[in-house]
Amino acid sequence: MVRDGLYGLHFQNNGEDFGSGVVSVRQGIINGGDTGFAYQGQLLETRAQNDCIAVSMQMHVQKWNPSILSLIPGLNKYTLDVSGQYDPLHDTLQLSGQTAAMPGITLNIVAVRIADLLA
User: Fold this and answer.
1) Can you give the pLDDT at residue 46?
2) What angle do CA 45, 3, 46 make, to 5 degrees?
3) Structural domains of the chain, ranges and CATH numbers in brackets
4) Spatial CA neighbour of 59 closest among 28, 88, 35, 36
5) CB under 8 Å, gap of 24 or more: what pairs does 28-35 form?
6) How far apart, in whole angstroms, are the C-alpha atoms of residue 101 and residue 90?
7) Measured between alpha carbons, how far is 97 from 106 in angstroms, rounded to an integer?
8) What is the pTM for the complete model shown?
């Protein structure tokens, strides 16, 4: 499964860079955020693919800072259906997510493990 730790995230919306954030991963549970939004979810392992592990989750996203624009225009609270893979050799996640509220928009997320969690 995905190794516990802090992960730095980088977001893209249809190829445009839109920022970064940090999440903690503990036993598959994700909690984190950035300068405008909080995100939470639970990563589920779906199957092993070669050296990587396929994962999925529903990521709940909620705006907390009214002065920050949303990655998905007009949405301040939504659920992303996320899927992708975890590379345990490099402690990285390559994910993409879509929301039923805005079909056709795909958010790409790259996450890199940056630190252990404190006990």
Assistant:
1) 83
2) 5
3) 5-115 (2.40.128.380)
4) 28
5) 28/1, 28/2, 30/57, 30/59, 32/7, 33/64, 34/9, 35/65, 35/68
6) 33
7) 6
8) 0.89
Phi, psi of 88 (to 5 degrees): -70, -25
Residue 100, both tokens: 């039923």
Q: Phi/psi at 61 (nearest 5 deg)?
A: -120, 130
List pLDDT tens digits, range 49-97: 778 999 999 999 999 999 998 877 788 999 999 999 999 999 999 999 9
The alpha carbon of 105 is separated from its chain's Cα centroid by a whole number of angstroms, namely 15
Nearest to 55 by CA among 89, 93, 91: 93
